[in-house]
Design brief:
- This protein has 392 residues and is of the alpha+beta class.
- It has two domains: 180 residues, Gcn5-related N-acetyltransferase (GNAT) (Aminopeptidase); 177 residues, Gcn5-related N-acetyltransferase (GNAT) (Aminopeptidase, 3-Layer(aba) Sandwich).
- Helix content is 33%, strand content 27%.
- It contains 14 helices and 16 strands.
- The strands form two sheets. Strands 1, 2, 3, 4, 5, 6, 7, 10 and 16 form a nine-stranded mixed β-sheet that branches. It has a seven-stranded mixed β-sheet with strand order 9-11-12-13-14-8-15, sandwiched between helices.
- Strand 11 and strand 12 form a beta hairpin.
- Helix 2 runs antiparallel to helix 10 and helix 3 packs antiparallel against helix 14.
- The longest helix is centred in the middle third of the chain and has 17 residues.
- The model has no long low-confidence stretch (mean pLDDT 90).
Length: 392
Amino acid sequence: MPKKISEIFTFFQSVKEIPQADWNVLKSKNTVYLSLPYLTALEETLKGTIKPIYLLVYDSEKKPLLAGMFQIATFTYKKTSQQNLFIKLFQDCRNEDDSFSIKGLVCGNMFATGEHGFAYSEKISKPNALEFLAKAAKIIQKDSRWEGLFKVILFKEFWPQSIANASVLEDYKYRDFQADVNMVLKLHPSWKTFSDYLKSMKAKYRTKAKNAFKKSEKLNIRSISSEEIMQHQNGIQQLFRNVLDKSGYRYGENYPASFAALKENLGDLFLCKGVFLEGNLIAFSTAFLNGDALEANYVGLDYKYNTEYAVYERLLYDYVEEAIALKVAELHLGRTSELIKSAVGALPVSMTLYARHTSKIKNVLLKPILENIEPSAFELRRPFAEYLYLQP
């Protein structure tokens, strides 16, 4: 970046304050997560869950260089092997049930895996953009509007090809770590229909898929409108909570409150499906059409039906069906349940995050905690002949 450019940082606490023309000139057309309709839906429905901070960086001529999205949010960990370190680092973070709640400033999207927290002008490079974001985090930390509201800063979540650029964050005392992998299915050009996809599977996995469809014959899986989402709001929230309860950590418990607004604001870019058994909602799935990728978002389940009707497995195949129908290049199935996702053809992709404590001294103590975080071990399934695998 030319040295003559002097950046000007401008922060906004609401989408309504953002100069739309400046934001939209930077926002990539392929990034639904930075679109103003998306951000508006989250802001209006999750006021008690996240505190958004939007950023625009201008050059000396007042031309926009970077758009960024931060959120202050609470992360709760149910169990940890390093409880004493957690107490030292985050003080009064322990809850009555022995879980730990940590308030953090997040650059990126809390509800999606990938690099969805910023967009920048061609005038600057990606390392320049990340330096701006690191500087912005420092400003936010010291600003009286947000001072003391968080103790850790997190940048999420970089693809392998971005690590060389993202390492600039280490100059700002961020430490890198890897959580669970992102399971990604690259769609083969020969898959024009879901039948083509099934035919390309090895016999063992094709039989497995057919068994899942047979078990789930009584299920009615269909798209639901924003009005129907509102009608089933309580049920959707409970199904979502069922999944959260099985996780070792949680955040954004009220996220389903945004579904109706997301559907209303984004239309076909947001997919929300209900799974009905004899007219009763027993599961749901959500996804975003984000450029050339279909990104699975969240599912909710009533687990008492899962085994008998192969509900979760059927939802994974439904994602594949949608991806093929939409003619996208990739299906991102996200973290967790790696084994069953690999059985539908997805391959693991390592994602890197960067974190630092707001205290210089405690940032040193953060190192052993981050080093103890590592992707879950799982056995990789390979349902296709090798020539059909397109590496993520």
